[in-house]
Amino acid sequence: MSLVGKHLIDPGDFTLDELNSVFQLAEKIIKKEEKFSEICKGKILATLFYEPSTRTRLSFESAMLRMGGKVLGFSDANVSSVAKGESIADTIRTISAYADIAVIRHPKEGAPKLASKYSTIPIINGGDGGHQHPTQTLTDLLTIRILKGSLQGLRVAFCGDLKFGRTVHSLITTLSRYPDNKFMLISPRELRLPENIKYSLENYKNIEIIETENLESVIDNIDILYMTRIQRERFFNEADYVRLKDSYILNKDKLKYAKKDMLIMHPLPRVNEISYEVDEDERAVYFKQAEFGVYARMALMALMLGVYKNA
Ligand code: CP
Fold this sequence. Notes:
Layout lengths: L15 H16 L12 E6 L5 H12 L3 E5 L13 H8 L5 E6 L4 H8 L4 E6 L5 H15 L6 E5 L6 H10 L6 E5 L8 H10 L4 E4 L11 E4 L10 H7 L7 H4 L7 E3 L20 H20 L6
Parallel strand pairs: 1-2, 1-3, 3-4, 5-6, 5-8, 6-7, 8-9
Helix pairs in contact: 1-5, 1-10, 2-10, 3-4, 5-6, 5-10
The structure holds phosphoric acid mono(formamide)ester.
The site of phosphoric acid mono(formamide)ester has 9 residues, from α2.
């Protein structure tokens, strides 16, 4: 089992054994990070971000720097030759000569996959439009594994923008590969999980799904509440965004009815969907989740580059 020579475009690109190898290595790194401080010496990560990011870009950069490697790239495509009309194919052909591994975030669904066709180095999808965000899923699963002790037998509720939320699409399909997980989908009618994903979960995987617009009606029976932001940048008009933006606001009052050990997760950035008062609640783990993202990405790159083989 090796991740060398693979791209990560969709979480389904990795088998469960391969995913587990990433989590096992991430847990080793968390225990003794100093052992890993030189393993990427001589390696270069390219971060090609055609869309804004704080966590994904900076946690990738932090991950590579913590392993002794170097980083180059752009966080605004307008300062690269993309502004002159260069295609993603030509950009990645060029970057392949400058770096050993690249992470790409792009507003267009499928752009990282297209880049992988022209690349001679491993490509990681750092989020493509409203489609997929596989390394957020690695982060989320590592968080659940560490804080819940298992990735199976969980009642997971996804709340907010399930239509455009790429983190939700990647996470729900990956959690469906582990046994006995059940899902609750909480969203306004217009922002429901895409029908193709729901159909596949219900009909091909026989997974129990409850769909509701009402968070309060299900909050007492959830192991993990995965809150998401309404994705303003994917809406076709501002009026719809304004109407839907405050559909769900998690606050202390609503949490009174939740289980004592429920995890409150969020891929971040948050806008208004979790009140700041919730941050003090022990169940709120979204900043811990962002921290685990560095370790998930360290493990991922170490395995994809083949610099650590005994995960
Ligand atoms: N979770 C996440 O993708 O955050 P950023 O948009 O800040 O990278």
